[in-house]
Amino acid sequence: MKAAESQKFCGHCGGGTFSTDGGTIGTDGDAPTSDAHHSCQQRLAMEPPRFCPECRRRMKVQVTPLGWTAECSRHGLMSFCTDTAPNSTS
Amino acid sequence: MSTQAPLETTTYAILNTAREQALERGEGLNESQLIQILELPDHAIPEALQLAHEVRLKHCGEDVEVEGIISIKTGGCPEDCHFCSQSGLFDSPVRGVWLDIPELVKAAKETAATGATEFCIVAAVRGPDIKLMNQIKFAIDRIIEEVDINIACSLGMLTQRQVDQLAEWGVHRYNHNLETARSYFPEVVTTHSYEERLETCAMVKAAGMELCCGALIGMGETLAQRAELAAQLAALEPHEVPLNFLNPRPGTPLENQGIMDGKDALRAIAAFRLAMPRTVLRYAGGRELTLGDLGTRDGLLGGINAVIVGNYLTTLGRPANTDLNLLVELNMPIKEFQKSL
After folding, report:
1. Which of A9, A10, A47, A57 to mutate to test the interface with B (most CBs of B within 10 A)?
2. Residue B70 contacts A where some CB pair is shorter than 8 Å
3. Is B56-329 a CATH 1.10.10.10 domain?
4. Residue by residue, what is the 3-state secondary structure of B183-220?
5. Which of B308, B223, B233 shows the shortest CA–CA distance to B267?
6. Cβ of B313 under 8 Å from any chain A Cβ?
7. What is the pLDDT of residue B336?
8. Least CB-CB distance to B97: which of A62, A67, A82?
């Protein structure tokens, strides 16, 4: 799974986000700005992503006491240990 | 000035009563007394928390019980608990997923390594079917074999046979929350009744398992209903009461319910401790949003004597080390593991 800065979709709500070159990636017609996901980013500090940042598929998420994993059927597994940095294992 | 004096008189009267009744005699406050605690003015909150802390120290001791929880079956629940993102009846982003046993055992080991003595296995179901019971049996056997930790379960409503099986397999505590007051329950859940919950709680106690029966506050209930809930929990005499604060989840009927006021949450912590002087009162979900770091500390010094360490079932908690370091800073020893018989 690609690094966070190249995310096309918001992991919290599944809406479109800015691409790395600053252009907005349209998704469902309303082309949200990055500001639209400010609260989503805050929420993602308190919960794992539910939508694949690459394709916005809903992911299978397993939360454990000390971490979480989120799996997209197309883009693989993303895991996070609470006490360390995010880690991609796909 | 004319209205201040009676208010102050009432404030000190209820706190004096609570001191004599809950602290000295170890008797919980009744529903009408709890309403007065929940209505205390802001400036009386520190005194109420201090009293609740003294009650906790006198009747429960200084130890703090640490627990980890994990979902063995997430999402797709047929029930309609309006706060829950795992209901299959709501348009929630939570997908159904099963945890395999090796991962479950690994999580139990990680939880035990934090110093936790409790590991609660939770499933989003109305009640367990044969497949889930078989999974639970297998998981319990593996955890007992490999990990020094007490096992609790939360699998919804049980039959008598399932209660007996869980007790026989070594589950020492069973969680089944009341969630809210009887008078507010129909506003929150329509697919099963309060009485059905009480039936499972009664069977668990009768089978000799410890009953863990909790609350979720901040769902729009009145202060009177919050007091009603505390009194109803006290009447059940549970070993443990996990205290949750609503974290409004996307897609649920309560998604637009505001986050509970932190001061009200602290009043509730004091009230629940004063209602149940001898019960394990555990910080559970939502405290990070409702109370933040400072409020978390206030609650630990205000009647709380147990925490869920790390993450919850579908949301994240504070890093385990943050809570464990706070306990060290507050000179609160973690309860040590004693294998349940």
Report:
1. A47
2. yes
3. no
4. CCHHHHCCCCCHHHHHHHHHHHHHCCCEEECCEEECCC
5. B223
6. yes
7. 92
8. A62
Nearest CA in chain A to B74: A62
- C-beta atoms of B95 and A61 within 8 A: yes
List, as own/partner pairs, every contact residues B94-97 make where C-beta atoms lie below 8 angstroms and the sequence separation is at least 24, other chains included.
B94/A50, B94/A61, B94/B314, B95/A50, B95/A58, B95/A59, B95/A60, B95/A61, B96/A60, B97/A60, B97/A61, B97/A62, B97/B73
Residues counted in chain B: 341
Q: Is the ipTM of this complex over 0.95?
A: no
pTM, two decimals, is 0.92
For residues B93 and B111, what is the distance between their CA atoms, to the nearest angstrom?
Answer: 27
Place of tokens 């009664």: B202
Q: Are A78 and A1 in contact (CB under 8 A)?
A: yes
Determine the 3-state secondary structure of B121 from DSSP.
Answer: strand
- CB pairs < 8 Å spanning A and B: 78
Give per-residue pLDDT as tens, B45-89.
999 999 999 999 999 999 999 999 999 999 999 999 999 999 999
Determine the structural domain holding residue A64 and report its residue range.
4-88
Instruction: Decide if A46 and B316 are in contact by the 8 Å CB cutoff.
Output: yes
- Least Cα distance to B55 among B84, B85, B91, B15 occurs for B15
The pLDDT tens digits for B172-222 are 999 999 999 999 999 999 999 999 999 999 999 999 999 999 999 999 999
Cα distance between residue A68 and residue A21, in whole Å? 30
How many domains, in total, are found in chain A? 1
What whole-number distance in Å separates Cα of residue B180 and Cα of residue B186? 10
Residues of chain B with C-beta less than 8 angstroms from the C-beta of A83: 319-321
Q: Taking Cα atoms as reference points, which of B287, B312, B318 lies closest to residue B85?
A: B312
Cβ-nearest to B69 among A46, A51, A65: A65
Q: Which residues of B touch A9 (CB under 8 A)?
A: none
- Interface contact A63-B311, CB threshold 8 A: yes
Q: Tokens representing B117? A: 């003595």
- pLDDT tens per residue across span B114-169: 999 999 999 999 999 999 999 999 999 999 999 999 999 999 999 999 999 999 99
Task: Give the pLDDT mean for B248-266.
Answer: 97
- The stretch B93-101 carries a mean pLDDT of 96
**B286: closest chain A residue by CA:** A46
Q: Which of B103, B313, B321 sits opposite A83 (nearest CB)?
A: B321
